[in-house]
Amino acid sequence: MKNLVILGAGYGNMRVLLRLLPNQLPDDVEITLVDKNPYHCLKTEYYALAAGTISDHHVRVSLPEHDRLKTRYGSVFHIDREKKLVHLEDGAVISYDDLIIGLGCEDKYHNVPGAEENTLSIQTIDKSRVTYQALNNLSAGATVAIVGAGLSGVELASELRESRKDLKIKLFDRGKMILSAFPERLSRYVQTWFEEHGIEIINEANITKVEQNIVYNNGEPVEADAIVWTAGIQPNKVVRKMEVDKDYQGRVHLTVQHNLPGDEHVYVVGDCASLPHSPSAQLAEAQAEQIVQVLVKRWNNEPVPEKFPPFKLKGVLGSLGKKAGFGLVNDRPLIGRVPRLLKSGVLWMYKYHNG
User: Fold this and answer.
1) What pLDDT sits at residue 354?
2) H-type helices in the chain, by residue range?
3) In the chain, what are the domain boundaries?
4) Could you give phi then psi for residue 289, rounded to 5 degrees?
5) pLDDT digits (tens, 9 = 90+) for 16-62
6) Do domains 2-36+74-106+233-299 and 109-231 have the same CATH topology?
7) What is the CATH number of domain 2-36+74-106+233-299?
8) Quick one: average pLDDT of 4-8?
């Protein structure tokens, strides 16, 4: 019996399981899923968990069940490609015939002194729970500094404003205008929304150091009762340690078939893969669809696709609390109530109709 080992129950690997089970998995293949949690986590909603507007239950989805799917709970420590073994932190060892690495990402601190030690995070469900406790235990009128005004920072700031209107929120943004990578009309809408809702945006920020309850912006200290870091991501540390070819962001270069060059038994999906788009749940799922096609072909001893059509991503949707949002769908900017409703609908469909 061949063993397909899947590391991580993120968006990409959940799509792999959805496609393989129950009908596409050959009779001589079993699957071992490795994750430290007994459920799939809706990472795109961690900002709301941390802000306190949704409960822990809302970001959990049950893992699939199948008689040839085994689940091992634990954290990956090392991957030995020569011996085709996965070592877990608890000492357990799992052998594989094929391996899909979907271990996700971690915060990237850009070598800013004190950033890792003195800031909160929303990168994992565990860290989001800690951030929730810290933010919601703050006294009235306390100041929260959010470092990084990408999608995560923007959604966290807006959701925290809805949860705790008494807090003073400062959002540090590197650009001259918030969400500068988006069309100007959309950026201006978000910037105006923050101004109207009393959130202070500090543009052209450059965080040089972080101490306990102090952020240094361009060398000047800014005091805060809590500091949340949303200023960049990097691949999981297990992938960073792998001796494979990577891009300048540390993501793994892959063949067209999404396996390591020279090793057709190891695939990388999601945030750790070097792809022509920014990491996202959509991208991981699109990549997973192609990985499943390749696996099934190889298991059936059939020629694998030599190329795939470009990924067709539908766009980006972001929320500004529960009643407003923004988005870029098919290169068309959306603002106001409609993108917020769309995001709620997409989330509902994923949670209740994705297997």
Assistant:
1) 63
2) 11-20, 46-51, 115-118, 125-136, 151-163, 184-196, 237-241, 281-299, 337-353
3) 2-36+74-106+233-299, 109-231
4) -55, -40
5) 999 999 889 999 999 999 999 999 999 999 999 999 999 999 999 99
6) yes
7) 3.50.50.60
8) 98
